[in-house]
Write a sequence for this structure.
């Protein structure tokens, strides 16, 4: 049970950091596209383009997961 709670804490750490950042980014891009004049013949905005796909983002997610996991694991071990 200790491992399950630690796993959930790690996942919550990842989601708790990246989801709000992604939400702010998407809202900013939508507001920018609504307020800026669009040129004729443009292709539009790709909603998946601002999502980072580089290894640094995966490394940051893994580090956040490990921090949340070990924090909860050590807390439950006491």
């Amino acid at each position: 049970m200790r491992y399950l709670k630690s796993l959930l804490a790690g996942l919550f750490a990842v989601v708790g950091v990246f989801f709000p950042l992604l939400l702010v980014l998407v809202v900013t891009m939508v507001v920018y596209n609504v307020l800026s004049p669009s040129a004729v013949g443009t292709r539009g905005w790709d909603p998946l383009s601002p999502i980072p796909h580089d290894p640094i983002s995966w490394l940051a997610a893994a580090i956040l997961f490990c921090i949340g996991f070990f924090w909860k694991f050590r807390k439950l071990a006491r």
User: Anything to note?
Assistant: The chain has a mean pLDDT of 79.
